[in-house]
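User: quick one, sequence for these tokens?
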């Protein structure tokens, strides 16, 4: 069955050229000249791809996209832009569109993009019909900031493809939620979604957990066990905290990615697996690669579709909506009476920097609801968060805590009269001094052991210890 392409452009000759090119390539086409005609056409026919001139006579291109998507949420929209279109308009349109073409339109590019767009539509249609009718494309992920709009678009694209996805973002930004949404919107939705936290397992166990083992593979292996990859067969596996994966296991994972088969520990047989892989990390993998703790070839294999989640402090406009979502969620979950939120609270929550991101906000709301006995959430229910500008978040997340501490300190430094140019030395000392002190305590003062643990040269360590007056 051929796909139906709607060409919405007010330029008569361009409209005809595009139609002729597409028809020759086997598509059916429809043509419209302005916003009203286009909307009418979208309402009446089920088009697959829409080529949409962003300035279409009477219509505002952006509003038009929104209206079109209300009537037809599966069609892929390709924006046509001309010289002189402002960048902001293009950017905004791109967030809702499948792709874009710039005039003058190159024939090969046109056919290539339309064919990919049509394939995406066909996929989305299959996914849609196989899920419940009231299925919400974005699940319960909220936030209308442009950074999040881009994330939603990427989730949609990742869902229709079957490629490996790498989700990046600070702790608490929603990486696992993204992985779930991709799975739920993919053709694998009715098959398993298996989560593996690569950071939570001792390295001796992770290999057998991932790939399984045969009976007698090691002392305690009394019976054979299937690994997570085989459990996830035909579904999706979510490899969380991928940077923590021991380097020996990385090699094995790379093989699975290349060969699509696993070899349980202690065995010689391999088993084919059909699994979509989604990996996530809050670490900078480039740094881990430079330190040789992460394989570069594995990184490239994982980084096919990267999705970066912005920290909450960079999209504060999303905070009110998140506050509202979490309040409603917990009121229902704990069966609390309806509760209001003072505007003062929302304002204050928006000024805070949320080093623990959405998870911290979620926990703060939970705590506030427990503290609150009246019908209104007030600033005092959010103590101590709204007391101090940037407190430490949950213990255990060193990155987040260090970030918060540094931020507070740097702000203080800039505001103070302290001489400029001392920040780096000062921060370095703040971190290095206790680090060396604690490690030395652990090694009972043995400097050679300490330098081994730290991974720094013994002479360097000695110089620093003298500099920080930790030894004489
Ligand atoms: N945009 C969002 N809309 C609604 N809920 C969100 C959003 N982002 C995150 N959450 C919620 O915040 C919490 C933290 O998200 P998630 O566990 O996915 O983060 P993470 O990046 O995996 O964090 P960590 O690195 O700490 O594991 C979850 O309860 C999740 O449902
Ligand atoms: Mg997580």
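Assistant:
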């Amino acid at each position: 069955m051929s796909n139906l392409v709607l060409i919405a452009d007010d330029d008569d000759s361009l409209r005809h050229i595009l139609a002729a090119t597409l028809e020759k390539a086997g598509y059916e086409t429809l043509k419209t000249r302005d916003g009203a005609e286009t909307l009418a056409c979208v309402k009446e026919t089920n088009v697959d791809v829409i080529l949409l001139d962003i300035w279409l006579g009477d219509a505002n291109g952006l509003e038009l996209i929104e209206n079109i998507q209300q009537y037809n949420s599966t069609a892929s929209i390709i924006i046509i832009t001309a010289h002189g279109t402002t960048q902001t308009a293009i950017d905004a349109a791109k967030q809702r569109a499948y792709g874009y073409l710039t005039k003058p339109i190159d024939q090969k590019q046109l056919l290539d993009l339309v064919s990919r767009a049509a394939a995406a539509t066909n996929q989305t249609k299959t996914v849609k019909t196989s899920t419940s009718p009231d299925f919400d494309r974005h699940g319960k992920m909220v936030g209308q900031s442009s950074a999040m709009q881009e994330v939603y678009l990427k989730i949609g694209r990742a869902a229709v493809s079957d490629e490996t996805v790498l989700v990046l973002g600070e702790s608490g930004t929603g990486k696992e939620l993204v992985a779930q949404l991709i799975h739920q919107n993919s053709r694998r939705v009715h098959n398993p979604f298996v989560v593996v936290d690569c950071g939570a397992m001792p390295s001796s166990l992770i290999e057998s957990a991932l790939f399984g083992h045969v009976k007698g593979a090691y002392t305690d292996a009394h019976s054979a066990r299937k690994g997570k990859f085989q459990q996830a067969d035909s579904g999706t596996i979510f490899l969380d905290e991928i940077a923590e994966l021991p380097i020996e296991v990385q090699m094995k994972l790379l093989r699975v990615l290349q060969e699509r088969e696993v070899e349980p520990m202690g065995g010689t047989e391999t088993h084919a697996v059909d699994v979509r892989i989604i990996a996530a990390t809050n670490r900078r993998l480039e740094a881990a690669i430079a330190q040789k703790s992460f394989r570069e070839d594995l990184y490239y294999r994982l980084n096919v579709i990267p999705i970066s989640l912005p920290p909450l402090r960079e999209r504060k406009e999303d905070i009110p909506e998140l506050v509202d979502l979490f309040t409603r969620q917990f009121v229902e979950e704990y069966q609390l009476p309806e509760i209001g939120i003072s505007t003062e609270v929302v304002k204050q929550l928006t000024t805070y920097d949320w080093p623990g991101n959405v998870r911290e906000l979620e926990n703060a709301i939970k705590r506030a609801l427990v503290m609150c006995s009246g019908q209104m959430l007030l600033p005092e229910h959010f103590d101590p968060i709204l007391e101090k500008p940037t407190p430490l978040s949950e213990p255990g997340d060193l990155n987040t805590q260090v970030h918060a501490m540094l931020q507070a300190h740097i702000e203080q430094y800039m505001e103070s009269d302290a001489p400029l140019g001392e920040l780096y030395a000062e921060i370095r000392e703040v971190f290095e001094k206790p680090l060396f002190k604690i490690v030395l305590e652990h090694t009972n003062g043995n400097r050679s052991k300490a330098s081994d643990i730290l991974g720094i040269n013994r002479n360097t360590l000695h110089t620093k210890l003298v500099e920080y007056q930790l030894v004489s």
